[in-house]
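Our consortium's second objective concerns turning raw sequence data into structural hypotheses that experimental partners can test. To show how far this objective has progressed, the report includes one record in full. It was chosen at random from the queue rather than selected for favorable results. The single chain below, 119 residues long, was entered without modification.
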Amino acid sequence: FILEEYEYYKEEFKNKKQQYLLEIWEFTINKGGGCYITSIKHKGEAIHPFVHPFKYMGSKRSTDSSRFAVWNYFQMNYDGIPYNKIRVWTYNPFRPNRLAQSEYNETDFVLECVPPKYR
């Protein structure tokens, strides 16, 4: 089941037209959450820099989250996230509406997804 859903997620990632300069894509592996595979779309380029799943999507306390990893990736490679709007696509195969989207401005993204000592 999960491998079939992951293939569908990869097709969505590949074929969905990018709407923001930065989009975070998350795939939920476990039914109860707690295991997320993450990719990035940045200026039309697919980026897959992460080799392991994350425990959280976003967390104010943990660095083991997909959104913190993206923030950290941009800190190391671009001197921070250079955009005010960030789109997040979350694919959860255990929900009727499998692909959900949310939008952040940079300030809210940092406040909700980056532990204070890293801000």
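The partners drew two points from this record. Helices lie at 2-15, 66-78, 106-113. The chain has a mean pLDDT of 95. Both points have been shared with the crystallography group to help prioritize constructs.
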